[in-house]
Amino acid sequence: MTVPATGIVHQLERAVEVVDTLFGYAGAGLMFVGESGELRYLVATDDAGRSLEGAQLHVGQGPCMSTYENDSAVTSFDVQTDPRWPKLAELLHPEVRAVAGVPVRLGGEPVGTLNVYQSAPYHWNESDVRTLQAYAHVIEQILTAAMAAEEKSALADQLQYALDYRVVIERAIGYLMGKHDLTAAQAFTGLRKKARDSRRRVSDLAAEVLAEGAGEPG
Q1: Is residue 22 part of a domain?
Q2: Residue 2: inside a domain
Q3: Cα 190 to Cα 101: distance, rounded to the nearest angstrom
Q4: Any residues with CB less than 8 A from the CB of 20 and at least 6 apart, and which?
Q5: Residue 136 in contact with residue 31, Cβ under 8 Å?
Q6: What is the residue-level pLDDT of the chain in tens, covering all 218 positions?
């Protein structure tokens, strides 16, 4: 199972990958809602950012999820000590500290979130939030243009395919976290290294890990 290297997913990946470079953040990510109505990560610029997205999916709470649920910007001076999400800190990469998220909308309704983080505690100001909102609008324009260029159902299929690809990996990460007492970043790094060493795709190895876990005695 692979994610197509072209189409809307590729465009969104390219858009998010330059956010940290443009604005000086440590990393960035993009989450979208899948067919099930659950928020999943689509793009993360690095392992630390991936731990932020993955940890939130694992515990069901966090700034990005709050951003989507409230359809408004959410910031955290230091997510490692933020009392709003007490289960999150122990699963995060140590370089994920200050976090900010803004909604990504389509047709006026939230469909995902654009998220950035800093590697040290940071007081986000109105200028930071406005900048993120403006860039989220760029992402919305990419989505709108893609919808105009092809049928909405085809666009949804591309996004859903990519989300499904990621969720297999995230489920394997969650399994490894529980089995070996790892953080999300440690679990992913180990999974990726094993995939590279065996010259396999991460998604294929993740599916195998899940299958092995399902076969273990309860």
Answers
A1: yes
A2: no
A3: 28
A4: 26, 27, 28, 45, 116
A5: no
A6: 333 434 777 888 888 888 888 899 999 999 988 877 888 888 888 888 888 888 888 888 999 999 999 999 999 999 999 999 999 988 888 999 999 999 999 888 999 999 999 999 999 999 999 999 999 999 998 888 877 666 566 666 667 666 676 777 778 888 888 888 888 778 878 888 888 888 887 778 888 888 887 766 55
Domain hosting residue 139, numbered range:
8-150
With respect to residue 218, please indicate whether it lies within any of the assigned structural domains.
no
Cα(40)–Cα(65) distance, rounded to whole angstroms?
9
Domain-terminating residue out of 150, 175, 205? 150
Tell me the CA distances in angstroms from 90 to 67, 86, 182, 183, 185, one per residue in order: 21, 9, 9, 7, 11
* Of 98, 58, 101, the residue nearest 188 (C-alpha): 58
| E strand intervals along 19-132 | 27-33, 39-44, 74-76, 98-106, 109-118
Q: Clarify whether residues 24 and 60 are in a common domain.
A: yes
Q: For residue 47, give the CATH number of its domain.
A: 3.30.450.40
In the Cβ-directed half-sphere of 52, how many Cα atoms lie within 13 Å?
Answer: 35
* CA–CA dist 173, 170 (Å, integer): 5
> End of a domain among 132, 150, 168?
150
CATH number of the domain residue 169 falls in: 1.10.10.10
